Amino acid sequence: MQSLSLSLPVKALKALADQNRLRIVMLLAQAPACVCELAFVLGLTQPAVSRHLKKLKEAGLIESEQESFWTNYRLSRKALLKGSLVKILERNLSGDQQIKSDRQKIKRAERTKLCCRPKK
Prior knowledge:
The protein has helices at 7-15, 19-28, 35-42, 46-58, 82-93, 97-107, 111-114; strands at residues 62-67, 70-75. By secondary structure, the chain is mainly alpha-helical. It has a single domain (7-109), classed as Winged helix-like DNA-binding domain superfamily/Winged helix DNA-binding domain (Arc Repressor Mutant, subunit A). A two-stranded antiparallel ribbon has the order 1-2.
């Protein structure tokens, strides 16, 4: 078994020690999303969500991919802790009312109406 550096789990756990970042991870565990969709669900500004995403990305928990006008964020495919950590979070938080509400709300998020797109 490969040994982990202590700094990796500490960085990930510190990133998850914020309610909004934890909510983002729970949303991204369901499906990729863009900043405007996450801002809509969380009730935060896009710059605030971007700051949270930056911390999650620096911790290696999420990654991004450009798709047309949007940058989609998703859980990192190569995060060392992703599999077991997300399973623990899912098992313990999927019944939480806020998480349930967030997951219902993101289904109503229409990025073409929420996001700013360059004019053609």
